[in-house]
Amino acid sequence: MSDFNSEKMTEYLDSLLNTGIPSVDCIVYENHKQIYRHMNGYIDKAQTVKVKPGTLYLMFSMTKVQTMTAIMQLIEQGKLSLEDEVAKYLPAYKNAVVEKDGHIESLAHPMLIKHLLSMQSGLDYDLSRPGILRVIKERGQCATTRELVESFVETPLKFQPGTHFLYSLSHDVAAAVLEVVTGMSFGEYLKKNIWEPLGLKNTFFAKPENSSVEGLAQQYICDEKGNIVPMDQSCCYQLSENYQSGGAGLISCTEDYAKLADTLACGGETADGVRILKPETVELIKVNQLGKDSLDDMHSTMGRQGYGYGCGMSVLLDPELAKSPSPAGVFGWDGAAGSCITMDTASKRCFVYAQHVRNYGTSYDVIHPALRDIVFGK
Fold first, then answer.
1. Count of CB atoms situated within 10 Å of the CB of 174
2. Three-class secondary structure of residue 230 per DSSP
3. Average pLDDT in the 311-334 region?
4. What is the reported pLDDT for 142?
5. Per-chain mean pLDDT for the chain
6. Helix pair angle (368-376, 6-16), 10° resolution
7. DSSP E strand boundaries for the chain
8. Of 55, 92, 183, 244, which has the maximum CB count within 10 A?
9. Residues 200-206: what's their mean pLDDT?
């Protein structure tokens, strides 16, 4: 690939180790061919075990890419619509209310599936909301995805659905909707319709605590002083042993996620000719769903100037505003430990980057844009 500078990529990745990031892991694909792979650093507390193929990571919000792929399969098949009311599948959502200026008001219009996908539902990311605490108290680790998701609306929404953008538990709700539509657990659906067709052999749901997971890279956190230090192997978004978070629940590896990225970059078809989405459905994922107010919300809370937000993934709309040489249409998302998945259907090129450091803002403001521009920049 003449315009991909592998030496520049390797130099940049290796430089990240000098900032305190313990390990880096990156794969680049173009049109079903792996054109680059680089790993460096260590994945244990003692800094003695080198990162290697198959190393596992808590993917956190990169889970959302799989959740959206699954939801778009149902939409493509006519089993679900972006315009469907969430309460059609989760009756508790009929009772949702909104808190505004200290007062409670009824919904002006129903929460729709498209509001979940575009983070315009009015939900937030409060994992200690009263409904969650009540269900865990009553059901303990047996609490299911649907039981917990239906409890979310025991707390008032932050705004009328569709009027603003707020990063939230919306995709966990989408996973519960999928369970109702398909009659399968979320994990069963993913295994049958994504993992097995794509040959993802090292992808599965985390538990609230994961210290016994063999091959899982040590998780780190950037502390208040800016030091990167080891932390426990927890996934706080997995609310119980039985819960399967559509927003942040998966453990996986770069090899598996690169297969997913390549499939989406190639219009929904695998290297073996297995189709999980139609090209037009992949393009629908990339259509910005946010109006002006919601775009302002996204840019003020998450940065990402020049980006919009489609069906669960950010989309580069204005490269000039983003100060990027990458083309419009590049799309993807990232995770709380600093990993990211980024794709472009025009060039059929994609990359997956993995690290395992929580609370490290540089990942999103500096590292991911730099990797994007090395891979896609002209």
1. 28
2. strand
3. 97
4. 97
5. 97
6. 170
7. 23-30, 33-41, 57-58, 97-100, 103-106, 204-205, 220-222, 228-230, 250-252, 307-309, 314-316, 331-334, 340-344, 349-354, 357-358
8. 244
9. 98
Tokens encoding 109: 């219009």
AA letter at 224: E
Reported as a single tens digit per residue, the pLDDT across 169-185 is 999 999 999 999 999 99
pLDDT of 158 reads 98
* pLDDT value, residue 131: 97
333 pLDDT band, cuts 50/70/90, is very high
Tell me if residue 127 falls in helix, strand or coil. coil
**Rounded CA gap, 259 and 361, in Å?**
27
Above 80 in pLDDT, residue 376? Answer: yes
Q: What is the per-residue DSSP string for 351-376?
A: EEEE--EET-THIIIIIHHHHHHHHH
- Two structure tokens written together for 286: 């990339």
pLDDT tens digits, 240-256: 999 999 999 999 999 99
Q: 120: closest CA among 88, 154, 168, 152?
A: 168
Long-range contacts of 190-195 (CB under 8 A, 24+ apart): 190/66, 190/70, 193/70, 193/73, 193/276, 194/66, 194/69, 194/70, 194/260, 194/276
Q: What is the Cα–Cα distance from 242 to 144, expressed in whole angstroms?
A: 5
pLDDT score for 378: 77
- Token pair recorded at residue 175: 């996973």
Whose tokens are 């910005």? That residue is 288
Amino acid occupying residue 7: E
Say whether pLDDT at 1 is over 60: no
Identify the CA nearest to 190 among candidates 7, 370, 181, 200.
200
Q: Which of 304, 269, 311, 289 is nearest to 66 (CA)?
A: 311
Token pair in block for residue 106: 């009824």
CA distance 72 to 82: 9
